[in-house]
User: Fold this.
Amino acid sequence: MYVLPMISAGQVLIAGIVSIVCFCMIIYRMFKADQIALPLICIVLAFFGFGGGIIAFVVGWIDVKKYDAMKVMVTWTIALVIFVGLLLSVPLWLPRPAPSYP
Assistant:
């Protein structure tokens, strides 16, 4: 039994949930700032997997003062760094087959 993959899978899950919550908070703040089209486009594109989250992330950083969302954006950035870092480290902690010699 490998403990490290289970711990990392839990961390990936937590980072993913934090990212989804931050996405929802930024969409809410976009609506609160009297924007209608941009958050709707982000929701539709995110639902179909075409980059709505990336658009919301970039626009969130561009208009961070307008949305008063510095803490949300920093949290989202940290969660994304952890998420991507753990996903890229998957090959490092997978079991390797033993070498066979002739």
In short: The CA atoms of residues 26 and 50 lie 18 Å apart. The chain has a mean pLDDT of 87.
